[in-house]
Amino acid sequence: MKDRRKFLALSAGLLGSTACNTNKAKSESGAHMRPYGLRSPHEKTARVLRELTASPGTGSSRTPLQDLLGTITPSELHYERHHAGVPDIDPAQHELLIHGLVEQPLSFTVAVLRRFPSTSRTCFLECSGNVIGDLRGNPPPTVQDSHGLLSCTEWTGVLLKLVLAEARVKPEAKWLIAEGADACRMARSIPLAEVLDEALLVYGQNGEALRPEQGYPLRLILPGYEGNMNVKWLHRLQAADAPAMSVKETANYTELLPSGKAEIFTFLIEARSVITWPSGGQQIPAGFNEITGLAWTGTGKIRRVEVSTDNGQTWADATLQEPILDKGIVRFRFPWQWDGKETVIQSRCTDETGFVQPSRDEFIALRGVNAGYHYNGIKPWLVKADGHVLAV
Amino acid sequence: MCWRFSFLFLITLSGQDKRFGFGQPVPAEETRKRDITVFPNGRGLPPGRGTAKAGASIYASKCAECHNDRGEGRENQYPALVGGIGSLASPKPKKSVGSYWPYATTLWDHIHRAMPFDHPRSLNADEVYAVTAFVLHLNGIVGETEELNEKSLPRVKMPNRDGFIPETRPFQKKRLGR
């Protein structure tokens, strides 16, 4: 029976191909399948790249937030920030060394790390330098340019604490120095006790192996912490009693205040939101428009998002898409009948600790304009009478 | 089966006992080879020595292409290494190695692990001490013939050594229980 079916299928295939060759009419049977899927050629949305040096791959790429649907960022559109390019790593040659203040220094291949009990976690990742143009009073034209160093992914890996337990971290270890295998061996010091509950050693992203640009074959994920600490291409974890004071935690990723003093180890991403539709560079018709956007916080869950369509005079609650994930991205939606008159639209969020996203003026009063990182002010968009939307 | 697993799990997490038996032991000489971290107290610095005088020619051939002849930098992407000392509280602060970086050990560590940009880890320890000395000399922090080595480098006091404070943002403090 089985053989007969195979035979019939084969014959049909042969007949089919003969028919195709002789029949001039265009086939309506559709395209061939492909082993690894691609989007429709009609879909063009893409990251915006900004390479900072003559060396390849050093700089950033920004996620097209204005085009995203839902809350998950496709791996292909995940934002990037590299400090010395993307290394080409053979996973069979890659090892994670855990050493320093541990009873037993150990190395782990990726294959061995995959043998540990695994866990998946959907959370946002954001560069703490995101939205810095707005802080400086120079907002770029689109939400991709201003807020695009933000993405949200399902990460799969093993809880860091399970792996650390194998090496038996000594009680005097207070910090973990995480180092990547990129050309600059980028390293950050991480406060051990504060990350231990949630930190993940990650090898999977959105259901498949990490992309090289996201740290293949292994990266650190610290939910809620600034992107730079989520070290990619992770190859070394050193337990220590003090931070290393590496270049990326002193010269960079510190926040200079008006007093001339700089805050160091400002790890957490605080609550923020932004309207992604309609947003800068778009044009809307008068009448019904659904305002939609994103809200997220490293402190836990977003509790509320309010939208104002009258330049901040009145605010009303937006609908939040369930489920609202701890340190995930929340999609909010707000129905709007636009009367065709020029106005300013904006959103502000509240997290579960009760913290309310500040206005730019409130932020500057506290932090000045030179902090350089962790700006989370309310984002206004000017809707002109002709429907064009501008960053202001 | 289930209770047994949970029981073992609890023991593991409280006592940090080896639970799965995964991971390959690494001998101390191997971890030393792979450990490139340099701490502010000098831990991790290898023996070696260099002066700004010796570093000038290395800098000219390996660093100046990006950072310019005297550490002025080139445009935004190649950061300035000098200048801005005393400017941090002004409306136009200028961050550089001299004006902003709190520890000289960070400079050594960064040059050693990440520079020159296209050929990182190609300088030997003496060359790194020498280039470090040269950059610090450009900033007026060490003399031209002052020797930097594993003992003297951690003792260099950077102008902004006391310029860093713990974060004060209210929400983070609340969460972290500080």
The average pLDDT of chain A is 93
Q: Uncertain runs of chain B with pLDDT below 50, 5 residues or more?
A: 1-16, 171-178
Number of strands of chain A: 24
CATH superfamily of the largest domain in chain A: Oxidoreductase, molybdopterin-binding domain
Name the structural class of chain A. Answer: alpha+beta
Helical proportion of chain B?
Answer: 25-40%
Kindly report the average pLDDT value of chain B. Answer: 88
Number of helices of chain B: 7
Brief write-up:
Chain A is of the alpha+beta class and 392 residues long. In chain A, 15% of the residues lie in helices and 32% in strands. The longest helix of chain A has 21 residues, at 2-22.
Q: Mind sketching the topology for me?
A:
The complex is a heterodimer of chains A (392) and B (178).
Chain A: H1 2-22, E1 48-51, E2 59-62, E3 80-82, E4 95-100, E5 106-109, H2 110-113, E6 119-126, H3 132-135, H4 143-147, E7 150-159, H5 160-167, E8 175-180, E9 187-191, H6 192-195, E10 200-205, E11 208-209, E12 219-221, E13 234-240, H7 247-250, E14 255-256, E15 262-264, E16 272-277, E17 287-296, E18 302-308, E19 316-317, E20 319-320, E21 329-338, E22 343-351, H8 360-367, E23 381-383, E24 389-391
Parallel strand pairs in A: 4-13
Antiparallel strand pairs in A: 1-2, 2-3, 4-5, 6-7, 7-10, 8-9, 8-13, 10-11, 10-12, 14-15, 16-17, 17-21, 18-19, 18-22, 20-21, 22-23, 23-24
Chain B: H1 2-15, E1 24-25, H2 28-34, E2 49-50, H3 52-62, H4 64-67, H5 104-114, H6 125-138, E3 148-149, E4 164-166, H7 170-176
Antiparallel strand pairs in B: 2-3
Helix pairs in contact in B: 3-6, 5-6
